[in-house]
Design brief:
21 strands, globular, alpha+beta, single chain
Length: about 260
């Protein structure tokens, strides 16, 4: 099993919770955003030096990564709002992109779409150069699954139903041809298990209250490898919710955990 965690930690000092979360869920790769002031050396020590913090080589990048020492990581590129990594386990090699897109609640739509186009261009170029197939984009997309930025051909071009990407890995609007991503989140949102989303927002008359801003999209080669996806609501018995929404003293986002089968 290959386990990947993403958490927007909202600038809070929650090193103990992060350590417990990584250990409890046997996380292989952990990606964080809004991590300013986090003491990653403390987390390394808490985890018995079994994990390593991958230091950023550009200032003010919004993405941080920790990896299990059994996983080999290479940094392809770091930008302010996204980072491109290779990650190799004993069984598989992945291409992982951690992202934190611009906030939708403050009118950054056009800027966010430009960032997405840059991400997609860099991903496609790196996939071609290194012949990557098992590509994962994970992070705070700051949009919901049906929003334009996820599904638009000129943005992430992600389909929400597995059968669509299984039938055709590419879309063909007009004369263009472009590789699709698959967004699996709809299969895991449910009233039954009370998994509604990762972020709660109630300040708009048209809000859905719960939003799936923290998401993962993958290429076709990983569609059948997804074992489970969940927004964590407890870590080591500690509730991450305060009443009906995430406890802002911990974070205003719930962590996203994704489990992949390895063959």
């Amino acid at each position: 099993m290959f386990n990947i965690l993403f958490w927007n930690i909202n600038g809070n000092h929650i090193e103990n919770l992060i350590s417990n979360c990584i250990a409890e869920n046997d996380v292989d790769i952990a990606i964080f955003t809004e991590y300013g002031g986090t003491d990653f050396s403390k987390i390394e020590n808490d985890l018995g030096k079994k994990y390593t913090y991958e230091k950023s080589y550009i200032p003010k990048t919004k993405i941080a990564m920790m990896r299990k020492n059994t996983v080999t990581v290479g940094v392809h590129q770091q930008q302010r709002r996204y980072s491109l990594y290779s990650a190799e386990t004993a069984l598989e090699k992945y291409f992982i992109i951690g992202i934190h897109l611009e906030d939708p609640f403050y009118g950054h739509d056009s800027t966010r779409e430009n960032t997405i186009r840059n991400i997609v261009a860099d991903v496609e170029k790196t996939e071609k150069t290194f012949e990557y197939e098992k590509t994962i984009i994970i992070g705070d997309f700051n949009v919901n699954p049906y929003d334009k930025e996820i599904i638009d051909f000129y943005c992430f071009n992600a389909v929400l139903f597995k059968r669509l990407i299984e039938e055709n890995e590419y879309t063909h609007p007009r004369s263009d041809k472009k590789k699709r991503f698959y967004n699996p989140i709809l299969s895991y949102i449910s009233e039954e298990n009370e998994m509604y989303g990762s972020f709660y927002y109630d300040s708009s008359p048209t809000t859905t209250y719960w939003h799936c801003l923290d998401q993962i999209i993958v290429r076709k080669s990983l569609v059948d490898n997804i074992e489970n996806i969940k927004y964590l609501k407890k870590i080591d018995g500690k509730e991450l919710l305060s009443g009906k929404k995430p406890d802002s003293c911990i974070s205003d986002h719930l962590p996203l955990l994704v489990n992949f089968r390895e063959v």
